[in-house]
Amino acid sequence: MFQHCAYPTSKQICAVAQALIEKYPCLREPGSLSGYDGWLSRLKNKMANYRRKPKQLGCPELAINSSQHKRPAAVKKPQKAELNYLPPFPPGESKQTLERVRVELLSDFKIRNNQKPVAEKTARTFSYCRQEMGVEDSPSVRDLLERWPALFDAIQVKEEFKSLTAIDLESQFYSNLDKYTDRLLRFFRSKEGNAACKMNEVLMLLDQDAGVDNRREVVIRGLMVYLSENAEHLITQYQHIKGDLDPDNLTHHTLKIVTKGGSADGSPLEAGIVLEGVQVIAGLQSVLNACVILVGLMYAVNLSYPKPLRYTFEFFQKMLLELDSGKLSPKILSLKNKLLT
To answer: In the 3-class helix/strand/coil scheme, how is the chain assigned residue by residue?
Structure first.
């Protein structure tokens, strides 16, 4: 159990106890309704006792929760189903050696068409980056961009997400989005009242372009309306601006997808991502692509979901990426039941 998760949930422990008595029927408890009630408490206690040993040996994910670092009541542990939340340094590596690799990575990242060395050194410094940013020290996005610029490259965001969750970000996101698209569009068209007016504006985009990518983007925009959330909290369009966006116009954005172009003059649409008033990624081909990269980026830099869009991001994580899908809010659970009936 510990190899998969240092802090297993009650549901995960229950699954282990159930698998235990299925493989070894002699361990089934007579008189217990489920047959494994006693095993639940035993497994919880065994995990708590086992965590003490790696903590004493300096396991980062456990040491950070020791009383020497913080109050035991405020446990820092994976909040979005990460598998490698705070991994230890690779064998033979130390903070000093990985810092030298990080400095080399800064130079490698400035060279064009240099993805292989960048990917190798990013993977090598993965544990060092996780311990430095967002988990222990919580640096600002501007500081992260200065020290770890490769972390904000779209390709490396997907690799970082895969290292954290063992899931391919794009393929998982798009495949499940396509699976639910027809039913979601049916739900969108059935909306009534004020929501129907907003939904019709979104659905009109299908008349302009019936391509797969535009259809996916319409579903994402319609999903926010369906969940009673405002798409303007996520997407801001600067349609008539040519060239780079003025940084002064972005300082008030905490988390935003910004777009430019795509106007009637035929200029191509270009999307970017702004975090804490800083544009960290630019040159993305669509809002859809930016949504996918943003989800991966929130995992990579350990950001919490914004409250005005919590249901949208919960749907992305738990329904599309199937991470921690057993624990849903009532609103998303209701939508899931509708989609599966």
So the answer is: CCCCCCCCCHHHHHHHHHHHHHHCHHHCCCCCCCCCHHHHHHHHHHHHHHHHHHHHCCCHHHHCCCCCCCCCCCCCCCCCCCCCCCCCCCCCCCHHHHHHHHHHHHHHHCCCCCHHHHHHHHHHCHHHHHHHCCCCCCCCHHHHHHHCHHHHCHHHHHHHHHHHHCCCHHHHHHHHHHHHHHHHHHHHHCCCCHHHHHHHHHHCHHHHCCCHHHHHHHHHHHHHHHCCCCHHHCEEEECCCCCCCCHHHCCCCCEEEEEECCCCCCCCCEEEEEECCEEEEEEECCHHHHHHHHHHHHHHCCCCCCHHHHHHHHHHHHHHCCCCCCCCCHHHHHHHHHHCC
* Prediction pTM value: 0.82
For 192-249, how does the pLDDT look when each residue is reduced to its tens digit (9 = 90+)?
888 888 899 888 988 878 789 899 999 999 999 999 999 999 999 887 676 677 777 7
Alpha-carbon span 327 to 79, nearest angstrom: 12
* Nearest Cα residue to 339 out of 216, 184, 174: 184
pLDDT tens-digit series, residues 19-74: 888 888 898 888 787 888 888 888 888 887 777 777 666 666 666 665 555 544 44
Mapped onto helix, strand or coil, the DSSP state of residue 232 is helix
Q: Would you say the C-alpha torsion 286, 222, 195, 306 has a positive or negative sign?
A: negative
